[in-house]
Design a protein that fits this description.
Elements lengths: L2 H15 L12 E11 L5 E10 L9 E4 L10 H4 L9 E9 L2 E2 L2 E3 L7 E4 L10 E11 L3 E2 L3 E7 L9 E9 L10 E7 L12 E4 L7 E8 L4 E9 L9 H5 L5 H17 L20 H9 L4 H13 L3 E6 L2 E6 L4 H5 L3 H10 L5 E4 L5 H26 E2 L2 H20 L9 H33 L3 H28 L2 H17 L5 E2 L1 H30 L11 H6 L5 H11 L7
Parallel strand pairs: 1-11
Antiparallel strand pairs: 1-2, 2-8, 3-7, 4-5, 4-8, 6-7, 9-10, 10-15, 11-14, 12-15, 13-14, 16-17, 17-18, 19-20
């Protein structure tokens, strides 16, 4: 026999045995019977079954039948049990089933704190004057009140937000098994909020159970805005409050980031591991034909402001331009070079030389963060990156950008529908916040991974240039703060789980993306050769480079190894200052 049938039979038996006067509901208008059966599970979750019979109630439901589940602060107003008023009391519901006249019926779950309102059946039209019977089954989370020595259930079954009178209201509460009957304390009420709607003389309230079962109270002639409520407490130990209750309740939202993580894992396993580094052998020269920027591109896997500094230093050493430093700014002057020198330049060096002096023979470069300067310096870095990618990308690397793009696309394809369909106290900004956090978070994270983290690493190693990084650091902090604020709004408006889901999407993309880039076998070999060359520079040439930089000598007179020292992040004064000038004012290219 179905559970609802057993419940109905039990109530009929209780009411048949109970020596109380029955309300004459045959002529009643509004709610003729409201019955709620509440079961307290051992983890504090509530199972609630409601049966609502209405008759000739069009005047009370002029826009269709609506039921406000009793979880809002207005239904939990007694501060003796629930504490001070809070707009969001943290209680959430999950609707399991709604039927109308013993048939499944459509319903909409409204927004607001706890999304408690149910719009049942046809809406925006008065309920007809006939008789109707509704059944609502739902789960309630975080409604239990856990105290130091006793736990309490406070439940207002009818709720305060109803305009229809209730001829007969029945509330049944089944507490966890094993609690001694004499250890249970009960305080029933029929009233509204505070003194606004006190119990009238026509209202009756009686306990009608016979023990050894659920606790049952019955009230008659309950007025509008009044509710039958009980506060039931018992000693601690019979209900165990689950840890991380909110996350456990809404844990299903993490299935989407889990699927994304699985996708990246499968791709990573399919691609196989990157070739391992070989033994380190010192080299006295860079690999044949390898320019400084190309050496950085292969060893560090990036093109950035340091790459630009290495190219400028290489052009200075080759006699193509002169560099003069004044007050943190660099004046570049084009020099007349013979055709053989120009022809021997690497493609990215030749392209940069053309861009630097496309308008005039002298320019000034700074590390300023203003829009014009960052756009100009970013253009130089982009040109270097494009040339290196065309020359070296497919030869030394397998980037698998298609897999990464598919992962990002899947992220938005999963997150945005969930934002549109989100339930919570305020979901109006869920879609915009989710888009903004994902887009800006991915861009910000990529910039930090590919350039900003290495810039600070270089500053910490060299000990100079940290003042130039402060404006960029402040900008990153502002954007990071904005992302945090939006995530906090998502946690408040939708749920903590939804906000953490968005964070999980970000972290999974940012963690897996760089790991899908692979060096080819040739790329691994050349990277090992570059590492051997760097070792030679660090042990043999670095002291010489430091002395040259300290003496403030003209870069044209400096050692030809200087551009490689800049590219491979070896500490020397002149190159460090030049590199730090561009690190904060250039966009990263990968």
């Amino acid at each position: 026999m179905p559970r609802s049938t057993w419940i109905s039979a039990a109530f009929l038996a209780i009411l048949w045995l109970a020596p109380v006067a029955h309300a004459d509901s045959s002529l009643a208008k509004g709610i003729t019977l409201f019955r709620a059966d509440v079961t307290v599970l051992e983890n504090g979750t509530l199972e609630v079954d409601e049966e609502i019979s209405v008759n000739d109630a069009a005047v009370y439901y002029q826009h269709g039948f609506r039921r406000n589940l009793p979880i809002a602060p207005t239904d939990r107003w007694d501060v003796r049990y629930v504490g001070a008023y809070k707009p969001d009391n943290g209680i959430r519901v999950k609707v399991l089933e709604v039927t109308g006249d013993r048939k499944p019926i459509k319903f909409e779950q409204g927004s607001g704190y706890g999304y408690a309102q149910l719009r049942i059946g046809q809406q925006d039209a008065p309920l007809d004057s006939g008789k109707h019977h509704y059944v609502i089954r739902y789960m309630v989370y975080s409604a239990m009140i856990f105290g130091g020595r006793r736990d309490t259930l406070y439940w207002s079954s009818d709720g305060q937000d109803h305009d229809a009178p209730i001829a007969e209201s029945i509330l049944s509460v089944r507490v966890p098994e094993g609690i001694p009957e004499n250890a249970v304390e009960i305080e029933p009420h029929v009233s509204g909020i505070g003194l606004s709607f006190p119990q009238g003389p026509e209202t009756s309230l009686d306990r009608v159970d016979r023990g050894n079962g659920p606790i049952v109270y019955r009230a008659t002639n309950v007025s509008r805005r009044q509710s039958l409520s009980v506060a039931i407490s018992w000693p601690k130990g019979y209900v165990v409050r689950p840890q991380f209750e909110t996350l456990l309740r809404d844990g299903w939202v993490f299935a989407a980031p889990g699927a994304l993580f699985l996708y990246y894992l499968i791709v990573w396993l399919r691609l196989g591991r990157e070739p391992k580094p070989g033994s380190l052998v010192a080299r006295y020269e860079p690999p044949d034909g390898m320019s400084p920027a190309a050496a950085r591109f292969i060893s560090a896997g990036t093109t950035d402001g340091r790459s630009l500094a290495a190219v400028i230093a290489q052009l200075a050493v080759r006699g193509c331009l002169r560099v003069e430093q004044t007050s943190g700014k660099y004046k570049l002057s084009q020099l007349m070079s013979d055709r053989a020198t120009v022809a021997s330049l690497a493609p990215e060096e030749l392209q940069t030389l053309k861009l630097l002096f496309e308008d005039k023979a002298e320019i000034e470069l700074t590390g300023s963060m203003n829009e014009r300067n960052t756009a100009q310096n970013g253009r130089y870095v982009a040109a270097i990156h494009n040339e290196l990618t065309n020359q070296l990308g497919g030869k030394y690397f397998t980037r698998h950008t298609g897999y990464i793009a598919l992962g990002v696309l899947a992220t938005f394809a999963m997150a945005l529908p969930m934002a549109i369909a989100a339930h919570g106290r305020d979901t109006s900004g869920a879609f915009f916040f989710t888009v903004w956090v994902l887009f800006c978070g991915l861009m910000l994270g990529m910039m930090i991974e590919l350039s900003f983290a290495s810039a600070w690493k270089s500053v910490m190693a060299s000990g100079i240039g940290w003042l130039k990084l402060l404006p960029a650091t402040a900008a990153f902090a502002i954007f990071g703060g904005a992302i945090f604020t939006l995530l906090r709004n998502l946690a408040r408006g939708v749920s903590l789980s939804f906000s953490l889901m968005v964070v999980a999407f970000l972290l999974i993309n940012l963690a897996w993306g760089p790991r899908l880039k692979r060096k080819s076998a040739l790329g691994r070999q050349v990277a090992d050769e570059i590492a051997g060359f760097r070792q030679f520079l660090a042990k043999v040439e670095q002291d010489k480079l430091k002395r040259l930089g300290t003496a403030e000598e003209d870069p044209q007179e400096m050692d030809r190894m200087l551009p490689y020292a800049i590219a491979l992040e070896l500490h020397e004064n002149w190159g460090d200052r030049l590199a730090q000038t561009f690190v904060t004012s250039t966009m990263v290219a990968e």
